[in-house]
Design goal:
The complex is a heterodimer.
Chain A (H helix, E strand, L loop, with lengths): L3 E14 L4 H9 L2 E15 L4 E5 L6 H8 L7 E6 L8 H5 L2 E5 L11 H11 L4 H15 L14 H13 L5 E5 L7 H18 L2 E5 L3 H7 L2 E6 L2 E7 H8 L2 E7 L11 E7 L2 E7 L5 H11 L4 E6 L2 H11 L3
Parallel strand pairs in A: 3-7, 3-8, 5-6, 6-7
Antiparallel strand pairs in A: 1-2, 1-4, 8-9, 10-12, 10-13, 11-12
Chain B lengths: L1 H15 L2 H28 L8 H13 L1 H4 L6 H9 L2 H5 L5 H30 L12 H32 L3 H14 L11 H9 L7 H8 L4 H31 L7
The chains are: A alpha/beta, B mainly alpha.
C-alpha cells in the first residue's frame, strides 16, 4: 500500500472581485462580486515511503495549495487524502507531529531571538524526550553546519543561514514526511547545493519521504527521480524525469566558431543565432544525427572550435509548459 | 500544557527586552494619570450636585487604571499574530500538534504580563508617595484586597479571551484595522477607562453592566477603592466567571470554524 494516497481532490477559493478606481471601490463596498478560482481540480497520485517527489508547475498552478492540503492546513472541497493511514485535516494533531514542513517564503523562527530558543520551544511543542532531542539537535548542527549561527538572533542572519535553520527546525521532531515548499528560494549557489545535499542525506539515512515544490529545475534534477507536473490546477504529467527528458529534450545547442558567413536551411535546424565569434545552432536530434550535421557544416565552413551542449532543463520545462499551454 | 507554558515564557522574555518601550509606556501612564487626576479634582472643586464617587476613590481608581494599563486595555493587539495572519506565516502554526486557540492565549497573556511587570511598579510607587489628594490610597480592608486580587486574575483571563477572539475574527476579515477599531471604541467607553462607569447615565450603566468590558477594569478597581460593596463584589466575581466561560465557548467555536476555513495568504 502506498504511503501517501491522494484521490480526486478539489479546492476552490472564493475571491472578491475588485477593479481599480474610486467608483468601483465604492460600489464594491455595498455589493461584492466574487470570482471562484479552481486552485486544484481532480488531482490524484500516490507516493511510496522514502521517495523524493518533485512537484512542479508555473506560478499559481496550485502547488502550494496541494502542499497545504497534504500538510493538513487546508481542507479540500472534495476528494480523499490518506497519509500514513490518517486523514491530515481530521487527525490534525496526531498527524502533524509526524510531518515537517518548510515554506520557503515564510519563517517559523522567532525573529528577535536566537534559533536555539525556537528549537527548545519546538521540543516542548512536540513533547520530545530531552535526550533524544539533544541527539537530533547535535546531528542537525553537524549536518547543516549550524554551530556558528544557532546562537545569533535570527534577524541578524543571512537568508542562506536562515534557511538552513528553518530546515533544521522542521526536522527536530524526526518527521516521517517532509514538505518543502520552495526551499531554495533566494539562496546562492553554495547554499542551494548545501540544502540539496542535506535533503538527499536525510532522505537516505532516515527514510524520510520528501515532497518538494520548486521553480529551480536544478533542485529537481539533483533530488527527484519522479516529478508531478501541474498547471492551472490540473495534473499534467506524473512520471520520471528521465522520460520527460527523452520526450522533450530533443534539442542540442551546437556552437560553431567560425569567420565564414553561411546560411543553412534544413528542416532539422530549429534556430540559428549569430553570436560574437560564430553561430549557435539548435538542432532537432529526432530528425538528424549530430555527426550528420557536423559533416554538413564542416563542408560548408572552416570551423575553429565547436561546442555541443545539452539543453538546459529550464528550457525543457518552458517547452513543456508551452506544450500543455499553461 | 508544557508547550503553552513555553510560549508564555518566550513571549514574556521577549517582552522584557524592550526597555525603551517600557519607559515610554511609564511616562505616558504618568502623563495621563496626572491629566485625569487634575481634571477630576477641578471638576470636584467646582461641582455642587451629588457625585457617585468620592474624590479619593476616584483618584485611586485612576492610578490603578494607569498602573495596570498594559494588562487591562483591550485594544492592544498582538502584532505578531496579526502579522502571521496577514502574511501567511500562520501556516506554520497550523502544522504544529497543538491547539492554536490556547497557543494564542498564552502568547497574548505572556506579552501582556511582561509589559505590565515592567510598567506597574513605578506608577504605583510614585502615586502612593504623592501628597493628598493626588495620591493612591491603599485599601485597609483585607477582604476587599483579597477579592480585588481574585477579580484581577479573572480580569486577566477575561482580557485574554476577548483579545484572542478579535484576533480570530481577523482571520475572516484578513485585516485587523476594522475589527480593532470597533473593539477600541466599545472597550474604551464601556470599560470605564475614559470616564468611570458611575458617571454614566443610567441606561449606559445598565448596558455596561451586561457587557464584559467593565469586568476587566472598572469592576476590580471600584472593588478595591471601596466604591462597590462586598456583596456586589461577589456578584461581580460570578459575572466575571460567567463571561469567561461564555467567551471561551464562543472563542473555541469561532476558532474551529476559522481554522477549518483558513486560507493562507501570499501563496
Amino acid at each position: 500500500m502506498s504511503f501517501i494516497t491522494v484521490k480526486h481532490i478539489n479546492k476552490t477559493f472564493k475571491v472578491p472581485l475588485k477593479s481599480g478606481g474610486i467608483i468601483s471601490t465604492i460600489k464594491s463596498f455595498f455589493h461584492r462580486e466574487y470570482r471562484y478560482i479552481n486552485a486544484i481540480q481532480d488531482i490524484s497520485f500516490s507516493i511510496k515511503k522514502g521517495d523524493i517527489v518533485g512537484y512542479i508547475g508555473p506560478n499559481g498552478a496550485g502547488k502550494s495549495t496541494t502542499i497545504k492540503i497534504l500538510a493538513g492546513i487546508l481542507v479540500p472541497d472534495s476528494g480523499e487524502v490518506i497519509i500514513d493511514k490518517m486523514v491530515p485535516w481530521k487527525d490534525r494533531k496526531k498527524y502533524v507531529s509526524k510531518i515537517g514542513a518548510v515554506f520557503g517564503q515564510r519563517s517559523q523562527l522567532w525573529w528577535d531571538i536566537p534559533a536555539i530558543d525556537t528549537f527548545n520551544l519546538l521540543k516542548d511543542i512536540y513533547k520530545l524526550d530531552e535526550e533524544e532531542y539533544q541527539k537530533t539537535l547535535n546531528e542537525l548542527i553537524k549536518l547543516l553546519d549550524l554551530k556558528d549561527i544557532i546562537n545569533i538572533p535570527v534577524r541578524q542572519l543571512s537568508l542562506g543561514s536562515r534557511m538552513r535553520l528553518e530546515i533544521a527546525a522542521s526536522l527536530i521532531h524526526k518527521p516521517k514526511i517532509l514538505f518543502l515548499d520552495e526551499p531554495t528560494i533566494g539562496l546562492d549557489a553554495i547554499s542551494k547545493k548545501q540544502v540539496r545535499e542535506f535533503i538527499k542525506k536525510i532522505n537516505k539515512q532516515n527514510k524520510v519521504t520528501v515532497i518538494l515544490t520548486t521553480h529551480d529545475m536544478a533542485d529537481i534534477e539533483a533530488l527527484a527521480k519522479r516529478i508531478i507536473l501541474i498547471g492551472k490546477g490540473k495534473k499534467l504529467y506524473d512520471g520520471s524525469l528521465k522520460n520527460l527528458k527523452q520526450k522533450y529534450d530533443y534539442l542540442r545547442k551546437i556552437k560553431v566558431q567560425t569567420n565564414d558567413k553561411v546560411k543553412l536551411k534544413k528542416n532539422y535546424i530549429y534556430s540559428a543565432k549569430k553570436v560574437d565569434d560564430g553561430i549557435e545552432y539548435l538542432i532537432d536530434v529526432r530528425k538528424v544525427e549530430i555527426n550528420e550535421f557536423i559533416k554538413l557544416i564542416s563542408s560548408k565552413m572552416t570551423i575553429s572550435d565547436i561546442d555541443i551542449d545539452n539543453e538546459n532543463i529550464d528550457e525543457l520545462i518552458v517547452k513543456l509548459y508551452e506544450d500543455y499551454q499553461i | 500544557m508544557k508547550s503553552y507554558l513555553s510560549y508564555f515564557k518566550l513571549k514574556f522574555i521577549n517582552g522584557l527586552q524592550y526597555r525603551a518601550s517600557a519607559l515610554a509606556g511609564i511616562s505616558t501612564q504618568f502623563f495621563f494619570g496626572f491629566v485625569y487626576v487634575l481634571v477630576y479634582i477641578a471638576f470636584y472643586e467646582s461641582g455642587s450636585s451629588e457625585l457617585p464617587m468620592k474624590l479619593s476613590e476616584l483618584v485611586s481608581y485612576v492610578w490603578l487604571g494607569q498602573s495596570l494599563f498594559a494588562l487591562v486595555y483591550l485594544w492592544y493587539k498582538d502584532k505578531e499574530i496579526i502579522k502571521m495572519i496577514k502574511n501567511g506565516d500562520i501556516a506554520y502554526e497550523l502544522c504544529r500538534p497543538q491547539d492554536l486557540y490556547f497557543t494564542w492565549c498564552s502568547k497574548i497573556l505572556g506579552e501582556r504580563l511582561s509589559m505590565v511587570s515592567l510598567r506597574f511598579l513605578p506608577v504605583i510607587i510614585v502615586s502612593l508617595l504623592l501628597p493628598k489628594p493626588y495620591n493612591l490610597v491603599i485599601s485597609t480592608n483585607i477582604l476587599t484586597t483579597l477579592l480585588f486580587f481574585i477579580s484581577l486574575v479573572l480580569a486577566s483571563i477575561l482580557m485574554t479571551f476577548l483579545t484572542v477572539l478579535y484576533h480570530i475574527i481577523c482571520m475572516f476579515t484578513l485585516d485587523e484595522k476594522g475589527v480593532v477599531n470597533i473593539f477600541m471604541v466599545l472597550s474604551d467607553l464601556l470599560s470605564g477607562l475614559v470616564i468611570p462607569i458611575p458617571f454614566f447615565p443610567k441606561y449606559l450603566q445598565n448596558i455596561s453592566n451586561i457587557l464584559p468590558f467593565r469586568y476587566i477594569t472598572d469592576f476590580p478597581f471600584r472593588l478595591y477603592v471601596g466604591n462597590i460593596s462586598i456583596n456586589e463584589g461577589y456578584i461581580g466575581l460570578i459575572t466575571q466567571v460567567i463571561w469567561i466561560i461564555l467567551l471561551f465557548i464562543i472563542g473555541k467555536l469561532v476558532s474551529n470554524i476559522a481554522f477549518k476555513k483558513a486560507t493562507i495568504q501570499g501563496g
